[in-house]
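Q: Sequence in, structure out?
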Amino acid sequence: MKAIEELLRNAGISPIAGVDEAGRGPCAGPLVIAAVILEDPFAPELSEVRDSKEVSEKKRDELFELIMKVALSVSVIRVSVQEIDERGVHAANLDGMRRAVKGLTIEPAYVLTDGYAIEGLAVPNVAIW
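A: Exactly. Output:
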């Protein structure tokens, strides 16, 4: 992801949002989806930020507080179990990502998504695996 974000920034594309979900693995739901815009995602204090499954619960809590402190904009939404049951996890996840991006207080010029590109998003986006 870092290489793609650097290419976009070097091309003058900014701000860039990242959007990801938690809770897709468990069968019971719900999904929690966050979209975040950071002024400098490569800042030294953010060097430990990575996939939440790769860090301890304590470290996740610490990184959450740090991200909330330094982010330019954050949008967190919850997709209910009922919505997942009605629409299916994939459709509910993509719609939740759209809602999270729309909830940012700063409109991104580009969005990096986890796993799947988001059709119908008002700004360009690319999926990162």
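The chain has a mean pLDDT of 90.
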